[in-house]
């Protein structure tokens, strides 16, 4: 079971009707004109019924679309996805006291955080929500309510994260985890590092996941190779899959030990979500998973945001393009590979269908001002976000300078208020 139970790519039918509302996938036909692709082509892209209907050379597609968006000067990409965020605690860095957990508070900041990340381009987001303790299932209920209110704008899914699952205290957590799945959590997770019996914790999570056919997404530092080896042994072959992160502790292990550990994860099909923007743990847990080692071993590596301006990371941006930029600039990944960690691989991790700039694929897209992917990751300012075939967010950044003779004489590119565009 994926986060949003996607359907495989299909072409538009010949029923003659537009079918569905905007919230159900965008019945209105949209023409994205003059967009640049990563292969250098400039194209028009026609969208309908939430999918890409046609891709053709600029000016070649019939202009009967009800809505036209000029993307001249923009690079068009498959939209990013956010595989690891904590929307229930997002935007609380300046709270000045205990985080308020009233249902309305959680729903409000979940909604605000989801829209902020949507503006960055993340049309699908997976939120890890703590359950249990004094708050019970209240935070999860609020996140699920936010998910319903955001339908048609962004696909938001919830990971149920119990604190304890073993021993006498863990019995309540286990019952609550099962209730969370019945309520609507589509992924089961947690933090085995905090349980007195980490292996027992993982075993119980996998048990609930198998009962309900849910994916597993666990939060772990990954600094205990024996613990990761046991997890790999238990998780091997589980469908629809197991993901762990942020695994910054793997970088602190001796190379030989870390290599054996990541090879075991790869053999078991366990994916890793790293967090280049700072993670969601304490200051003593900073560090990024060894991305080169993980990729070399064949581990499915995605990148997520973690904390979004909460106490764990008060400056967390939640920007997938920044995560890709950091992987390219600090971990030496090629720009395309870095972007794949926040788009194609992130979507695969979340069980979502593949997106390509081809007819028949889901219209989950982001257009960013720039001509090449490297430039886009460097200066990702203006963005246009498409979800289910319609434009759902725009960010427009204008940079202005005082007039200078040198700029005119050298014919330097200018971006001013008179520039046309979306």
* Ends distance: 37 Å
User: So how many helices?
Assistant: 12
What's the rounded overall pLDDT mean?
Answer: 89
Which bin fits the share of residues in helices? Answer: 25-40%
How many β-strand stretches?
16
Overall geometry: globular
Structural class determined from secondary elements:
alpha/beta
Q: Strand percentage, roughly?
A: 15-25%
Low-confidence stretches: 4-22, 417-422
The profile of the biggest β sheet is: 8 strands, parallel
Radius of gyration: 22 Å
Enumerate the strands of the largest sheet in spatial order, edge to edge or round the barrel: 6-7-8-9-10-11-12-13
Task: Please give the structural blueprint.
Blueprint: E1 30-36, E2 42-48, E3 51-57, E4 67-70, E5 74-78, E6 81-85, H1 103-120, E7 124-131, H2 138-149, E8 155-162, H3 167-183, E9 187-190, H4 198-212, E10 216-220, H5 225-235, E11 242-246, H6 255-268, E12 271-274, H7 291-297, E13 301-303, H8 320-330, H9 335-342, H10 344-349, E14 365-369, H11 373-378, E15 383-387, E16 390-395, H12 405-409
Parallel strand pairs: 1-4, 6-7, 7-8, 8-9, 9-10, 10-11, 11-12, 12-13
Antiparallel strand pairs: 1-2, 2-3, 5-14, 14-15, 15-16
Helix pairs in contact: 1-2, 3-4, 4-5, 5-6, 8-9
Entry summary:
This protein is α/β, with parallel strands linked by helices.
